[in-house]
Amino acid sequence: MTMRILALLALLGCAACQLPREPFSTRTAADPNGSMVLSDQTPAAAKDASAVQQTARTTLLEDNEHLRDLLTKALTERRDLESRLAAANEALASLKSQVQSQEDAIATLSEQQNALRQTVEELTRERERLESERKTLAEMFAVEKRQRLAFEKELLEREIAARTVSRGGG
What share of the chain is helix, strand, coil (3-state, %, to 5)? Predict the structure, then answer.
């Protein structure tokens, strides 16, 4: 765009170079075409100067119209880019919101995981305690059973001895 403006200015400069550069004091009133007629010019030279001025005006008008078209196109592209940027910003905000909600979910799940770990650790300790108590109770039961069996054996031996003495000695 800047290059086009510079090119236009260069063209304007060239068009201005083609116009006669007479001092202002030598100019007189305008002719019916709107161009200035110089007092020391012949009518043919004035006509040539008028044609050059008309060509320069036409070129300037065409360049002006072209610049307007370029400006309109640039403004349209700018609006399009701004709308796309706004859409991208909305999508970014949506993604940030999703990321934040997922981070919150992760934090919640981490807290739940830690709570469950503690529960598992507590249950593991409780299981180990119960297992230890079961072993102790099993040992106590085994000792009690041995004692009962030994007591019953002794009772049977006494009864056998008492019957033997009562039969034999009787």
Answer: 85, 5, 10
